[in-house]
Amino acid sequence: AQKITQTQPGMFVQEKEAVTLDCTYDTSDQSYGLFWYKQPSSGEMIFLIYQGSYDEQNATEGRYSLNFQKARKSANLVISASQLGDSAMYFCAMREGAALMDSNYQLIWGAGTKLIIKP
Amino acid sequence: EAGVAQSPRYKIIEKRQSVAFWCNPISGHATLYWYQQILGQGPKLLIQFQNNGVVDDSQLPKDRFSAERLKGVDSTLKIQPAKLEDSAVYLCASSPGQGYNQPQHFGDGTRLSIL
User: Fold this and answer.
1) Whole-angstrom distance between the N-terminal and C-terminal Cα of chain A?
2) Is A50 in contact with B107 (Cβ distance < 8 A)?
3) pLDDT one-digit tens code per residue, B40-92
4) Fewer CB within 10 A of the end CB, N or C, for chain B?
C-alpha cells in the first residue's frame, strides 16, 4: 500500500492565486515527521516545510503553510499568492520514527505534483 | 551557512565506463544520504551514512555501485561499470542527525547520462 499519496499529477494555477497541493499518508507510528520539497526543472531539491506528528499548530514558512489534519492523515501544502517562480515539481515525504533522535527509517516519498503557474 | 556541495553538475559517459560523484555536506551534519532519481519519479535512497559508518545500503546495487565517507565528512559515490539504466540524477543530502524531525538538505545533484 502507498504510504504517501499525492493525487494531483499536475496543476495549472493563475499567478497570484493561492494553491493547495494534496498529500495523504499512511502510518501506524505515533511519531513521524512530514516534509514538503520543491524541485524546479534545474533539478535541485529544496526543503520547504516540516510538520511533526505531535505539533498542534500548523507549520508556516513565509508563503508556505501546511494544513495538517491528523485524524484524516492529511498534510496539504498551501502556497499563498503564487509566483511564476513557484512552477516546479512538489514532493510530500514522511519519516516514521519510534524515537525522536534515533531513527533509521527511510524518508518515504510521494510521486509528486507538477505545478505550473500561468502569468 | 553553506549548503550541500556536489560535483560534477553534469556527466556524460558511455556504458561500461566508470564514474564518480563527490559530495560535501553542510558543516556539522552527521548524516549523509545518496539518492538516485529517475526522471519523473521520487528519489530512491541508495545509501545512508551516520558519521563514517553505513546505516542503510539495502537498495545499493553493490555489484556496480560503491560509496565511502572517509573521516565522516566528504563522500564519494562510484559506479563501475555503468549501465544504460543508471541514467538519472544523483542527489546528495545531509541532516544534523537521523531523527524523524530532521529535514534533509540536498545539493544541486549530478545529472548522469549513459550513452
Assistant:
1) 38
2) no
3) 889 999 999 998 899 889 999 999 999 999 888 999 999 999 999 999 999 99
4) N
